[in-house]
Amino acid sequence: MFEKSENFPENWFFIKNHSNGYVLMVENESQETGSPIVLSTIRTKDYAAQLWRYDPKGFLINKKSGQVMDVAKGKVS
C-alpha cells in the first residue's frame, strides 16, 4: 500500500520536538486503545512508551503498547 520512506529508521526511534527537546509518548504508559499521546522529557530508562516504529503499511507503532498512533475519530481539533 505505502512505499517505505528512506527517512524512517529501521528500528525503534523517538519522535522529538527539536524546539524544546520533548518526545511523544503514550500518556501514563497506558496500553489501552484510545490513550492520549503527550509530550515528555526523554527518559534515561523505562522509555518503551516513548519509542515508535514505522510499519510498512504507513502506521507508527508504540513499543510499549503495541498500539498504532491515530487521530481520534479521524478529526484534528
UniProtKB/TrEMBL annotation:
Note the Gene3D superfamilies from the entry. Answer: 2.80.10.50
Q: Which SUPFAM superfamilies does UniProt cross-reference here?
A: Ricin B-like lectins
Domain of life of the organism in this record? Eukaryota
**Occurrences of domain Ricin B lectin (ranges):** 11-74
Q: Which InterPro entries match?
A: Ricin_B-like_lectins, Ricin_B_lectin
Supply the name of the protein.
Ricin B lectin domain-containing protein
Q: Which organism is it from?
A: Rhizopus oryzae (Mucormycosis agent)
Q: Which lineage ranks, top first, belong to the organism behind this chain?
A: Eukaryota, Fungi, Fungi incertae sedis, Mucoromycota, Mucoromycotina
